[in-house]
Amino acid sequence: MSRRSILQTGTASVAAASLLALTACGGSEEQAEAWILTGGGWDAIADDLERFNESSESTIDVEAIENDAYKQQIRTAVGSGDAPTMIMSWTGGALLEYVNEERVVPLDDHVGELEQRVHDSVWQNGVVEDSVYAVPLNDVQPVVLYYNQDVLDEHGLSVPETWSDMESIIDTLEGVEDVDALSVAGGSVWPALMWLQYLTDRHGGEEVFSAVVEGEEGAWDNESIIYALETMQELGESGFIDNYNAVDAAQNEDAQLLADGRAAFLLQGSWVYATINMDFPEFADSGSFGFTTFPELEEGEGDPSNVVGNPANFWSVSSDASEAEQETAFNYISEHLYNDEAVDDMLNSGSLPPLNDVEDKIAGTDAEEFLTMADDMVANANHFQLSWDQAVSPSEEQPLMDNLAAILQGNMTPQEFVEDMNSQQ
């Protein structure tokens, strides 16, 4: 789900790499370095690093790189020993690779009070074999089920608490003209990954995909993954919006279908809340715009509190950096990360820091109701599962998305999907 974060929008017109020279008083002969992404909320991260430089005797130079270019550039740099001091990742397969190759250092003694402040479901994404190798740096982005209350009211429906409730809603709306149950941007593929993740997790629990990430032989060929794929194909026949493979998330077409009353529900990331308020203000202000958690699967083994999405982007510290450069990074992480000004900036923009001490700050914000719900989701989550396209090893990412596209288009069976993914390991 990496291409739709509000932190990564607006990058198409930005050069692949642009140097942000952040200077400050003081300084040292060995300057630490950090690479971030361009556009969106990353401007706030650059501003925060600049504030650190202005108040510190050591400084951090920042280079901003477009999202897709960054993925290749950082892998090359880390592999060659030329990585920046502070390495940004989505954790998952990339972080495991860095740890296994000893390209990043343990941070257990350099996190200050951060571990006590960050929600455990988010923090665990940076832990490998009981050691901390990465810490979150920006907002948490759970996947949320949005709904149009007017559509539900018109057809005598309620917000679903269980999957049986959702199936009843789908059955009720199946024969209704010009209204479908579920908006999904199948043409973009990645939004459908959210359905695959939640259905797999609700059916079998977080251990199912953990086995995939850990590289267990045959892990993809699991009854819960097959159940999720089969269910998605059933939703394609009755449930998903008509012509869902022509719907484009890059143009916010899936959100527009919800706002226009063409669909009752939309499963999307938390960033869509801001999108709907900005692009469809009449719907956002109508009292019909609602949001809730993914339904519980009654017969499933998964914990219904589990969340999928983007726990955050994370900082790691390069083992190839000098001691002085590493010390600068440690100081930033332990003393500056998620400072009051940075947290206020996030909340005022409608973004949610993954912290357990922001409840009072959320109160009174324009997005108070939504941020409170999202904060409760993350705080109460037994497990927060990273988006699969970031959690798998880099070599599996493209086959995963290609095979999911084939499932959506009806060109591949669930069994063929899992067999092909097993062959990628």
Automatic annotation (TrEMBL):
Q: Which residues form a coiled coil?
A: none
Provide the leader sequence positions: 1-23
Organism, per UniProt? Garicola koreensis
Pfam families the record matches = SBP_bac_1
Protein name from the UniProt record: Raffinose/stachyose/melibiose transport system substrate-binding protein
Q: Which InterPro entries match?
A: Bact_solute-bd_prot1, SBP, TAT_signal
Name the PROSITE patterns on file.
PROKAR_LIPOPROTEIN (PS51257), TAT (PS51318)
What keywords sit in the KW lines? Signal
Q: Does the keyword Signal apply?
A: yes
Superkingdom of this protein's organism: Bacteria
Q: PANTHER family, alphabetically?
A: ARABINOSE-BINDING PROTEIN-RELATED, BLR3389 PROTEIN
